[in-house]
Design a protein that fits this description.
There is one protein chain. By secondary structure, the chain is an alpha/beta fold. The strands form 2 sheets. The chain has a 7-stranded parallel beta sheet. A 6-stranded parallel beta sheet has the order 10-9-8-11-12-13, sandwiched between helices. Strand 8, helix 8 and strand 9 form a beta-alpha-beta unit. Keywords: Transferase.
């Protein structure tokens, strides 16, 4: 045996710069696209704006495009298999090639957990490894899929990009080569929300008086039972808790919601413009998640100048830095105390809001994300 044959990109004349990138965007068709789709679509727009790369999306076979909310800004080429068959074929048979749909590319960027065959250098985004920390929150099939994806990423990826140091640390613990890992945080598109837009949003959604906000997909690691327990006992009973986001999985909160009654308003999934209006109008944004790959809702709230309470020891603590309040996500009493303290202190709430806005708009830009991704692509080709 003389070892494995050279990969296709290891033969022929060397390329000085990455020119054409295939980007997997299958998550845009998921029932709950979530943060991974938002990050992928934001990254694509940033690469279009701040680099000269030619980008082409790739997905499974679909009869319909994704909804307009999740529609990519680049052309997406479809492979001949539907999603489940494609994922299984990629992970077990290492077929079909991405380039079967896209034509020749310099780099493949796998933006979700599905790992295509390495017919070109692969850059893979690992958002988080939550399924390894608590497999009970996922289906057996899901855990099996994720484990196979991680095995393939460790073996085949030329560069691994992670949105937070917390995710990098987890990747290293689970056997990834630290030399291949790059930190690439997501960015933010700050928008100024007029007071008239907030008033219209309130009228549309039936929100009156002061409110605090949570946003995300309703699923176990978002830790909503702890938030609801903390909110149930706060001092100011005239404050409303607004929950924004789609139904997810494996989270039973109906009993708590029933006890809270009209003190909680559920608005479900909202478009990004409405979410920005909700964030801008909130007294506080509260996000006590147990684990996040990054925590984009926290960054978005900071970009609206809203004070944030989030979880210590997680990636969201990295995002807020010293410009927000962090608490142990398992400590109901500590979370309740911080909600009470900030609701009663307009000066401190405003200070945190201003500091968070400055941090969000200065440190977390899509231009930085785009340049870091371009660098990762070129490293992968080296």
């Amino acid at each position: 045996m003389t070892g494995d044959p050279p990969a296709p990109w290891e033969t022929g004349p060397p390329m000085e710069r990455c020119r054409r990138v295939a980007i997997t965007l299958e998550q845009c068709w998921h029932a709950v696209p979530g943060g991974t789709a938002r990050a992928a679509l934001g990254s694509v727009r940033a690469l279009q704006q701040f680099t000269s790369l030619e980008l082409v999306g790739v997905s499974a076979r679909h009869r319909q495009p994704p909804s307009s909310t999740w529609s990519p800004s680049i052309e997406v080429k479809q492979l001949p298999l539907p999603r489940l068959a494609l994922y299984e074929s990629w992970h077990r048979l290492r077929w079909p090639d991405v380039e079967h749909a896209t034509g020749r590319v310099d780099v493949i960027h796998a933006t979700g957990m599905a790992m295509p065959p390495a017919t070109a250098p692969i850059v893979v985004t690992v958002h988080d490894l939550a399924f390894l920390r608590d497999p009970s929150q996922f289906t057996r099939r899901g855990v099996s899929f994720f484990r196979r994806a991680i095995d393939l990423a460790r073996r085949d990826a030329s560069i691994v990009v992670c949105p937070s140091q917390a995710t990098i640390d987890e990747c290293i613990v689970h056997g990834f080569d630290p030399k291949k890992i790059r930190l690439v945080p997501w960015g933010i598109d700050p928008t100024v929300i007029e007071s008239s837009a907030i008033m219209a949003m309130r009228s549309r959604l039936g929100i009156t008086g002061r409110y605090v906000l949570w946003a995300g997909t309703i699923e176990p690691r978002k830790n909503l039972p702890v938030l609801l327990s903390a909110f149930e006992g706060i001092e100011d009973r005239d404050v409303t808790l607004v929950l924004a986001g789609p139904e997810g999985w494996n989270e039973q909160i109906d009993g708590q919601l029933g006890r809270l009654g009209s003190r909680v308003v559920r608005v479900g999934f909202v478009e990004s413009e409405t979410l920005s209006e909700l964030q801008a109008g909130a007294e506080l944004f509260i996000f006590p998640s147990r684990q996040e790959g990054f925590g984009l809702p926290v960054l978005e709230a900071m970009a609206q100048g809203t004070a944030v309470i989030t979880s210590s020891g997680t990636s969201t603590e990295e995002v807020v830095g010293d410009c927000g309040v962090v608490v142990d996500p398992s400590d109901v009493d500590a979370l309740r105390a911080e909600i009470d303290r900030l609701l009663a202190d307009d000066v401190e709430r405003d200070r945190l809001g201003r500091a968070g806005l400055n941090r969000a708009t200065s440190l977390f830009t899509w231009e930085k994300t785009a340049k870091a991704l371009q660098s990762a692509y070129e490293e992968a080709m080296a």
